[in-house]
Give the backbone structure.
Amino acid sequence: MYALGLQNNDIDKIEIVPLEERLPSKFIKIFECAIPEPNEDEVQIKILGAGLNYNSIWQSICHPLSPKSLIEGHVRRNGKDIHHLKDYYIFGSDGAGIISKVGKKVKTWKIGDHVVIHCNVIPTHEKNIDDMKSFSQSIWGYETNFGSFAEYTCVKYNQLLKKPTHLSWAEAGSYMLTLGTAYRMLASNNGAKIQKGENCLIWGGAGGLGSFAIQICKIIGAKSIAIVSNYEKENYCKSIGADFVINLSEFGSFQYLNKLEKPNYLFWKKFKNKINDKINGEIDIVFEHIGRDTMGFSIYVLKKGGRVVTCAASSGYLANIDLRYLWMDVKSLIGSHFANLQEAQTANELIINKTIKPVTSTVIKFDLIPIYLDKMYKRENIFGKIGVKF
Ligand code: NDP
């Protein structure tokens, strides 16, 4: 079959290129490999739709870890998954398709079922323990092999969700990772538990996470304040229901950190005042995933007792924050990662009953994946999600 990702001999070549010169399309490629066969607790799926996510960018540029190290880590935690150690790495953590084979222990799904795959890999659910706290937990197509950028994949039986019948394959294959993540971050008891009437500041409002965060605020009755970098993204956020949009291009040069990488307090104060004036209120929750550049400000901008919920660090994972604004104003910083099975199922129901739209604004062919990953990395005008048609 055809698949897309990296091969073993690419890794050493990538790691000697300076990080700032690495770009997904320089390294990832299409190659041929064997169709994966399901273990007894797995199903094989013919992939008909997939979605692009930022984690394929991290894998392509081998930062902060190469796919080889990530998959070796998964196998150390999950000895039975040794078949994931190959001399190639297939990327892709969102996909949908038709079950083509089932392992002998799989009773809940059958050949021919139309499914959406969620990316949380755990061998079994432990009673009364959040799946995301399991020692064995990994992300499919990132920390495991056989992702969705291929003709076939194999996934655990407990990674499957019903495909919404009103969606195309490209739409069905592209929402789950970011929707599930945004749902846990905002709506779940494991996240910020946003309440009706609260104000939520959303970084990257037009991106994958942001466009679902805006919709989740709406259904809960919270106010969304989306941050974007240009007018096209501003219009997009308004079109999906953002209550306010902060367009960074209107604020001149942005300096969250000064030249010494220290907080730029003067700028923070001015920017916070502008946001509060615009919404005529204060921020209760910040939806964070930018990291290094913005985390210090995200804590500072909150009202007393507010919470920052974060799942990522696109601009860098070593952040410079001023802890005084955390403890003296009794604020909380909450870490979040994808979603457990129950959260993924609840989020999927919101798509099935059409409460949330899949926001797949671009559908591309398989061979364009590298180019579109570059566009995401360079913050070009991508709105919502990019789906892949097979
Ligand atoms: P997208 O590329 O779809 O959107 C990200 C948005 O963030 C962009 O539209 C851009 O908007 C904004 N952005 C990027 N860099 C900066 C910056 N330095 N300052 C301000 N804004 C910035 O990505 P996703 O929403 O899918 O993912 C975002 C991050 O979250 C990634 O790092 C990803 O790996 C991570 N993630 C983590 C998950 C988890 O489970 N832990 C799950 C899903 C994603 P604009 O140009 O308008 O500013």
